[in-house]
Structure to design on (347 residues):
């Protein structure tokens, strides 16, 4: 079903780019103009910068890369990505330049999202490829309604895959406290090395079981763990009781890194080591490490997740029911489409 042009309006334009280097430099400059923009753009920007580098060095690119830039009266409004990473296709991601309060205006957001959907279909993206959409909450809801109608694919039976708050930590907000260790225990907080891969894989697989439908077999988790260690994107909290063998209690991964911002993308603690402060200790250490070279560290925390208290204690802002005090601390939502029709990816 085509989208009526009247729904989009002549003041909104959308342009597709299959080659990352063809995206206008002005768009890239805006996305990394400061950490308040680059933070929410982190869902798109790091992969985009990586593919630009690959293209520059004539390295093979993942297949089926697509970015759509939407402008209103010539000013950047939204950027949509439909791309593929080393573990498979990503969801459709959408970055919005407008503040969240403006995105709540249906008459403002719907025409631009309609333009994105129109361009997505025009670029030949199949309905099987769009397995989920992740964006600021009102953008996701509007995209899902329009896509379901025009692509003829309904939402999944339990469509709410991920409902989360976007938050960030800066050098100013970071809380650097030394934590005591229980008597008889010693800890080591460090970058992971090759010998850690099997245990990291176990924890990656267990993490995936908390994030249906994106489940990993142990073989796929092993592939992910090897990649994280090779790329230097995962730290471990090693713990030892007296003279016993060391064990990895927690992992923290940070797989999306751009010019001024890094994102913590995975935090998981082995259940047998919980309630000992391991996650907070490691999140603080990794955040401190990343802030040496970045203006901000960002992450998403699902609504109602007790981990929000951990992030709050490390200095991530807006998690005390005070999100309105911090620009950009907003609600994001991932909705999934009918799993009998789509082909699931991974992120």
């Amino acid at each position: 079903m085509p989208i009526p042009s009247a729904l989009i309006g002549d003041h909104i334009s959308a342009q597709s780019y299959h080659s990352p280097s063809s995206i206008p430099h002005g768009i890239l400059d805006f996305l990394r103009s400061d950490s308040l923009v680059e933070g929410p753009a982190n869902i798109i920007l790091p992969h985009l910068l990586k593919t630009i580098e690959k293209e520059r060095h004539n390295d093979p690119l993942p297949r089926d890369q697509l970015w759509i830039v939407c402008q209103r009266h010539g000013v950047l409004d939204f950027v949509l990505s439909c791309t593929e990473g080393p573990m498979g296709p990503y969801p459709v991601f959408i970055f919005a330049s407008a503040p969240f309060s403006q995105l709540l205006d249906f008459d403002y957001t719907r025409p631009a999202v309609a333009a994105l959907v129109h361009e997505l279909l025009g670029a030949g993206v199949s309905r099987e490829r769009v397995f989920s959409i992740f964006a600021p909450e009102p953008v996701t809801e509007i995209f899902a309604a329009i896509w379901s109608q025009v692509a003829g694919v309904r939402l999944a039976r339990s469509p709410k895959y991920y409902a989360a708050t976007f938050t960030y930590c800066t050098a100013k907000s970071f809380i650097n406290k030394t934590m005591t260790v229980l008597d008889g225990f010693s800890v080591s907080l460090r970058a992971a090395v090759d010998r850690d891969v099997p245990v990291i894989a176990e924890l990656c697989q267990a993490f995936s079981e908390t994030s249906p439908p994106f489940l990993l077999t142990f073989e796929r988790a092993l592939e992910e763990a090897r990649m994280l260690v090779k790329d230097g994107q995962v730290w471990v909290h090693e713990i030892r009781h007296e003279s016993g063998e060391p064990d990895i209690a927690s992992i923290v991964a940070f797989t999306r890194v751009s010019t001024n911002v890094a994102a913590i993308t995975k935090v998981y603690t082995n259940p047998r080591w919980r309630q000992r402060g391991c996650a907070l200790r490691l999140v603080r250490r990794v955040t401190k490490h990343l802030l040496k070279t970045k203006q901000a560290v960002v992450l998403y925390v699902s609504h109602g997740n007790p981990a929000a208290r951990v992030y709050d204690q490390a200095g991530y802002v807006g998690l005390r029911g005070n999100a309105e005090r911090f620009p950009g601390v907003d609600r994001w939502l991932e909705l999934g489409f009918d799993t009998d029709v789509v082909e699931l990816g991974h992120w």
